[in-house]
Design goal:
By secondary structure, the chain is of the alpha+beta class. About 35% of the residues lie in helices and about 15% in strands. Strands 2-1-5-3-4 form a 5-stranded mixed sheet. Strand 1 (about 5-10) and strand 2 (about 10-15) form a beta hairpin. Helix 2 (about 85-95) crosses helix 5 and helix 3 (about 105-115) packs across helix 5. The chain is globular and about 45 Å long. The N and C termini lie far apart (about 45 Å).
């Protein structure tokens, strides 16, 4: 079985896996990283949103072989030690989470959006399209706008 090496949340890792194994399963089942959630497996719900070399991806639809030699960041790698990322802080301040299942993906998508634009519009936020079965979209929007303000 091939061995793939990449940086995961700032630390070098290796994983034995078939080349077509979804990165999500390598993260969760082989490396014990459980922040990215499995929701659909086909890049629709976006509960697994993570970063590959700083770009947002859905590891349910990216093969582990694509991570070879690259940098993968999950929700676990977003904070700087004990200091939460401004988006994580805003999520707490706006009491966004209900069940919490989609929240790692929602937060990572919000961070990706704020990397692209420091002043997101409602249309920009709606374009994220991460699914929240609890329906906290209004609080998600408020948290993103609050984080954008803090980060600018």
């Amino acid at each position: 079985m091939p061995v793939y090496g990449f940086t995961l949340n700032g630390n070098p890792v290796t994983v034995d896996a078939p080349e077509d194994l979804p990165l999500l399963w390598a993260l969760r089942d082989k490396l014990g990283v459980t922040g990215p959630k499995y929701g659909c497996g086909i890049n629709v719900c976006k509960a697994c949103t993570s970063f590959l070399d700083g770009d947002d991806i859905r590891p349910c639809s990216v093969k582990v072989s694509a991570a070879e030699g690259r940098e993968v960041t999950t929700i676990e790698g977003l904070a700087d030690g004990d200091k939460l990322h401004p988006v994580q802080e805003a999520w707490l301040e706006h009491d966004v989470a209900q069940c919490g299942y989609c929240q790692p993906g929602q937060i990572m998508a919000a961070v990706a959006l704020l990397k692209r634009t420091s002043s997101p519009t409602d249309e920009d936020i709606r374009a994220i399209e991460n699914v929240c079965r609890c329906g906290t979209y209004f609080r998600i929007r408020e948290a993103i706008m609050s984080a954008a303000e803090k980060m600018s």
